[in-house]
Amino acid sequence: MKIESHDKFLQEQIEYYRLRANEYDEWFFRQSRYDRGPELNQRWFSEIENLRKAVDKFNPSGDILELACGTGIWTEYLLRFGGRITAVDAAPEVIAINRERTKSAGVKYLQADLFNWQPDKKYDVVFFAFWLSHVPPERFDSFWQVVAGALKPGGRVFFIDSRFEQTSTAKNHTLEKPDDTVVTRKLNDGQEFDIVKVFYQPAELEDKLRKTGWQITAAETPQYFLYGQGGRTS
Ligand SMILES: C[S@@+](CC[C@H](N)C(=O)[O-])C[C@H]1O[C@@H](n2cnc3c(N)ncnc32)[C@H](O)[C@@H]1O
What we know:
The chain is an alpha/beta fold. It has a single domain, classed as Rossmann fold (3-Layer(aba) Sandwich), CATH 3.40.50. It has helices spanning 7-20, 25-28, 38-58, 73-79, 92-102, 140-150, 202-210; strands spanning 63-67, 84-89, 107-111, 123-129, 151-162, 182-186, 192-196, 214-220, 225-232. β1, α4 and β2 form a beta-alpha-beta unit. It is globular. The termini are far apart. S-adenosylmethionine is lined by residues 10, 13-14, 17, 68-70, 73-74, 89-91, 94, 113-115, 129-131, 134.
């Protein structure tokens, strides 16, 4: 079913990530409900390695804006490249974990709702991991306008996201159909939340973005991830 407006899910989405802050990393490190056994876990980590290699090649440097920075899994990685990072997220609880993880004066944190926020300066790189899928389809263009407005001339973007893959998520989550745009997520204590989750195909994403002045190259890892990079055409 096509949902015209996802606005009613946006506060619930923030609430979910605020309450999930202390258990968020279990997903990335394949622990407890996200542990899919040695073979699939191994595949996951090897595909994370592919993502890291792609980020290395992209070489994010200079002034970097990280949107929806979360607990800092990627903030920490971005610090390797020696840039100055501005990390934005709506959830103070994840920012606190991120700050503790990076312990770096090279990261400036901003607590903001990205659907009501405009950057106050321009950046060489805008980076976002596992965020685009949480942007409602009807806000796709306005989100990318914010990204465009955040870039210096010649600035570059890099993003990572999830592919539609049941074993990516917790054992007690269900992925119904690839074109659904809302999923139900559970916390460890069983509380349930409906949040936005949109899955893209690389070619579809490239085409969609080309129409609004982007030159983006998107690719997939074999099972779990989608990633893309590029900049403005004009
Ligand atoms: C899937 S997590 C990704 C976190 C991190 N980038 C990573 O890769 O681990 C999504 C993040 O978006 C944040 N978020 C949700 N809604 C938001 C909003 N409206 N504005 C800013 N951040 C938001 C959540 O707090 C959460 O940290």
